[in-house]
Each structure stands twice: as C-alpha cells, then as structure tokens.
Amino acid sequence: MAVPLLLATLAIRAVFTIDRYWIENIAGAEVLAAYVLFAGIANAVMAFLDAGVFVFLYPRIVSAFKEGNALAFKKGMSLLSKQTFIVTIFLCLMAIIIIHPVLSWLERDIYSQHVELLYLLLAAIFIFAISMVPHYGVYAMSKDKYIIGSHLLTLIVFLLVAAGLASVSPVYAVPVALCISLAFMSVCKFSAYFFLKSRLTWVSA
Questions:
Q1: What CA–CA distance (Å, rounded) separates 205 from 202?
Q2: Rounded to an integer, what distance in angstroms lies between the CA atom of residue 73 and that of residue 79?
Q3: What is the Cα–Cα distance from 141 to 190, expressed in whole angstroms?
Q4: In this predicted model, what pLDDT tens digit does every residue of 158-168 receive, in sequence order?
Q5: Measured between alpha carbons, how far is 100 from 52 in angstroms, rounded to an integer?
Q6: Most buried one in 12, 73, 83, 179, CB count within 10 A?
C-alpha cells in the first residue's frame, strides 16, 4: 500500500508545484512573483493548521476508531471539524486584513495590482483545509484507496480546468483551477467518509 500512497501524495504535491510553472508560462514572471508571495501566505495558513490542530487531533481519532470507541470517534471528528473551520476562517481573515499594509510597505505595484490572487489562494486553502476533516476520518478507517483515488483525480481535474481557462484568463486560470479541483477533492472525500460511516454499525447516524 506504500506505493499507491506515495503516488497519492505526489499527485497532490504536483498540483501545488505545477501551478507556479504554469502561471509563469501563461502570465509572466511578474505575475509569478505576486503569486509566489500570496501562495506563501496561504500555505502558512495550512502549516499552522498542521502544527496547531491536525497533529493533536488526528491521533485521537485514529486511536478511537482502532479501539472501537464510537463516542470518542464522533467527538474527535466533531472537534476536528469545528477547530478546522474556526481556525482557518480566522487565519484567512487575518491574512486579508494584514496584506494591504504589508503591500503598502513593500511598494511593489505588481503585488497590489494582483491582490485578488491572494483571495483566490486563500479560498483554495480553505477548501483544502476543510477536506482534511473527512481525509482523517477515512484515514482512521484504513480505507486509503478512497484518498488515493481522490488525489489522483484531483490532479487530472486541475490540469483540465487550468488548460481550459488558460486562454480565457491567464492570470486567474491557475488559482481558479486550484479552487475547482480542491472542491472536487473535498466532495470526493466527504462522500467517501459518509459512505464508509454509514456502514459502521457502531457509529450512530
């Protein structure tokens, strides 16, 4: 199972790597500079979630499932959902509030002209963060094939959408494709989680 999981990890990492090369190719180096700055801010949101929320809660969820403790599993998933939503919203709003004074201090017009890229990237990272809730639920159930499938399909969706939008909006094609593909991944993971949950006799509806 290690190889498929590795492929799944590489697929989702590819989405967050190809985006930079693609936007440079269709929008130019200056737009890429703004994109990289804003992507760094968005990725910081995810890094904080990893270190401040996921690393503490997902081991509890996995342990609860392995022990057959339905109540602890439900409580863990509920807490994960609430904390992920609240922390992500808070961090995204803080990024939106702080970015304008920072851009004024940097005095780079190209950043200010394309600040909408930040909003789209924050939307993408919000969707990605929310998708981690069912991700850890499915992972706890040891049903990795659903995670693998969703990641591989997400890469395909991203490539198709970005290619389709490239000629329509070179600047926004990639971040919009990120939002759409990650939303697709989120739907896949939530669908898998609720399907698998419905088959667990010890988990109440």
A1: 10
A2: 10
A3: 14
A4: 999 999 998 88
A5: 26
A6: 73
